[in-house]
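Lab notebook page, bench 4
Experiment: in silico fold of construct C2
Operator: M.H.
Input chain length: 273 residues
Purpose: comparison with the prior construct
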Amino acid sequence: MTLTQARTYETTTDQILAEQDGHILTLTLNRPERLNAISGPMLADFSRLLTQANRDPEIRCVILTGAGRGFCSGLDLVDNNPDARSGRTPAARTLFDLRNSPPTVLWNMDKPVICALNGAAAGYGMDLALLCDIRIASENGKLAAVTARRNLLPESGGSWLLPRLIGWAKASEMFFRGQTLNAQQCKEVGLVNEVVPHDQLMSTAKAWAEEICVNAPAAVQATKRMMRQGLEESYETTVDHLMVHLQALFAMDDFKEGVAAFLEKRTPHFTGR
């Protein structure tokens, strides 16, 4: 596959970069001087790029990473609100549109998202990492549950996500003690899938993404949708929904291709149709 600047994934700011490599879209948070803290201009671009990728039949997997030594240090409340230094901070909803924010869009995406955790992720940045389906960390990766040290909350769903990922007791320990876990500690508690040398992070993330992309995209996306819905459904309801999805998959050319490839003992070529 040839790496090209994603012309159809244009941004209004150089604070977030988009590159398309075949079926893979890589989004890079690009404010290394601020450890990739999310500015106001980044929010709209970020949400739009994620939404566009989710609708684009050519994209089968998204990789999210950061430039420089940090993944994302959180929301940049100071740059977005001059009164923040003095403590005269307006309500969060006046600063950011939480309904259409990147975390909300991430949660509703059917395309798989891999977090390539290149450095520290704190607050909002940690929530972004947790909302990805797979997390691959470099040896420099960290997850920092430090919102209580700033008189803040995990404002983008971290208090909902973390207990579901590692259990109530461990999530309580991280949040209440304001803990920062290094990459190996994150792997030990199940917050990252793999830890790799820093210079192998992106190549590993892309290799995993390529493994995802060779599978039938509709099946992958339906599986993710079912997993997400299953968090709030009974087993019986999930099985009912499963049958609805299966009927749609059976009618696709990719189902015929999958069966033919199995019988002919060859690698299938899926088109998403």
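Observations: The chain has two domains: 3-213, 217-264. The two ends are 21 Å apart (CA to CA).
Next step: discuss at group meeting.
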